[in-house]
Amino acid sequence: MNPQEERAIRIRRRVIGMLHAASASHLGSNMSMVETLIAFYSAVDTEKIKRGDPNRDRVVVSKGHSAAATYATLEEFGLLPSAQLDSYHTSGSLLSGHVSHEVESVEHSTGALGHGLSVALGMAIGLNDRAPDSRVFCVCGDGEIQEGSVWEALLLWSHLGLKNLILAIDHNRISSITNTHDVINMDPLSQRFEGLGFVVVTVDGHDVEAILSVIQSSSESEKPTIIVCETIKGKGVSFAENEPIWHYRTINDELLHTAMQALPLENG
User: Fold this and answer.
1) Per-residue pLDDT tens digits for 176-229
2) What is the CATH code of the structural domain delimited by 31-233?
3) What are the residue ranges spanned by the domains of the chain?
4) Is 141 helix (H, G, I), strand (E, B) or coil?
5) Buried/exposed 111-145: b ≥16 CB within 10 Å, e otherwise
6) What is this structure's pTM?
7) What is the mean pLDDT of residues 18-38?
8) Share of residues in the chain with pLDDT > 90 (%)
């Protein structure tokens, strides 16, 4: 097991524990994008984020249902105190079930889907003028991109040709409790983005190094980059993988034990 794989298991175990303790949902959504978050936070200067440097790289988790994975990743990278995660989704806690900017190191609240890319684009426009070496990373769900506001942002982004913004699509093919193609069929997804003038790279969304490789090569592209991350909703938890109902179900004690057994760490 390589270090990034072990990191992903730690985050998934943390997420499962948080969801179980709070009787919270969104297990499937959180599990599918762990590696994307790891890649993003591996690519940024976390010290600048800690300092609140105005020229820092920024990460916008537009797929707001993945709050638990976002907070657990921030903890893993030293950007959020561990004790704070223990209050997840409890009364009075800042750590709600949707990503909130009230939480340390979170750039934007994304409980309402479809807004994050527009905000990320605005950040990229501002940074392009004063700190062109800084970057903005945004992740959207493949159900979320059915929102019209996402396509308005894509059109403007393509027109401006900004390369300091990188978008990843969590392509798990499940939207809420049904298949995305049964709501609005977006296939062929890559060609839709390419038609707007983007460089589109499809990767195994559970391979951190593959995502990082695209991030690293994006600066050499003549056009902005979109990464389509092929993922499994509920990844790592057998009873939840590719099961739409696990957008809403909660984890009981028995399922907690089953899930943790499926995600062993080499060092305990």
Assistant:
1) 889 999 999 999 999 999 999 999 999 999 999 999 999 999 999 999 999 999
2) 3.40.50.970
3) 31-233
4) strand
5) eebbbbbbbbbbbbbebbeeeeebbbbbbbbbbbb
6) 0.97
7) 97
8) 95
